[in-house]
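Hello, quick one for you while I still have it in my head. A protein chain has come my way and I'm curious about its shape. Can you walk me through what the tokens say about the fold? No rush at all, and the record is pasted right below.
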Amino acid sequence: MSKGSDVKDIRLADAGRKRIEWAEREMPVLRQIRARFSKEKPLKNIRLACCLHITTETANLAITLKAGGAESVFCASNPLSTQDDAAAALVKHYGISTYAIKGEDHKTYYRHIQAAIQHRPHITMDDGADLVSTLQKGSRELLDGVLGGSEETTTGVVRLRAMEKDGVLPYPVVSVNDALTKHLFDNRYGTGQSTIDGILRATNILLAGKKIVVAGYGWCGRGVAMRAKGHGATVIVTEVDPMKAMEAAMDGFLVMPMGEAAGIGDIFITLTGDKAILRPEHFRKMKDGAILANSGHFNVEIDLEALAKMAKTRRPLREFVEEFTLPNNHRICVLGEGRLINLASAEGHPASVMDMSFANQALSAEYLVKNNRKLEKRVYAVPEEIDREIARLKLLSMGIAIDSLTPEQEKYMASWQEGT
């Protein structure tokens, strides 16, 4: 058993281990990286603090990092996303310090982050930038030994770029989220499927015939809109970016302002990374029985404090569903306390999607160890060679072969002399 951990119930470890092994079946890229890491030990003597969703897929990343020689401490990046059996298994069966309890309160959440920081990491691994921001705001004495970090999600990258712009980013960070093998698959296919999964598990409603409002048409919004349409729903997209709004319209979705969509929608799903996307002016227009879900990283996209103040009454209806009754007697149901619905009421992304995301994390950690002295205090994209290697390994695991350029083709693509 690892030293220093805080999990819900260590007796869940055996069940967690089985589910971790089940997830591993769908993570062939990470398995191939783990095999190499076991031989080469590229992370030997490196301490990592990892603030990620503690799931069976994350557990496979943790095992891979340990195989590479790293000493890691894991904590949750969201109070509702932890799978308690996976956390227990990490501690008992894999000897990896883990601080994560599903449903932990705000104080416990940040106490767990502090526990990870006190590990004095050389590398941070974030999903939402809470490690970086906590180090910067309150634990600056621990920054000296940090070589760099990586960031998993869009919301975290937005925060990190804001820190870079303000000149306060304390060390170089690799944006795993910007890797093509991450956001094209994780954000679109992973979020698309798992968000719908979370909503269905929480509500058991029929999506066919419903009007679903998708707030934000980034890669996550694209995925959710595509899957909702596949279920037979009429999809309405709201956006502030004219290019994304145009793309949504060309993809066949209705596009309108939220003020207009608020009175039409049956289900609202926020995926913007910004705050107060659904607020009082929208709540007042919503029809009786409207369902609100968030699949953005933080629970700020639905103004829950304002909704609570407006409501005459509020009550839990079923697990992960809370009903707010407004003065006009219209009932609005909020799913998963406004937190990431795909992890609050479901199991998050399928393992085959996280395989590529966490392969990026593992290889980015190796990259930071080898190249940190060359890097400035900036947000960097994942190097193209890492992205292409992950794609190569994924294709290899799928039994798919592709063409190679002939010498003549390579010469043509590198020249300008040959014309029409």
About this structure: The chain has a mean pLDDT of 96.
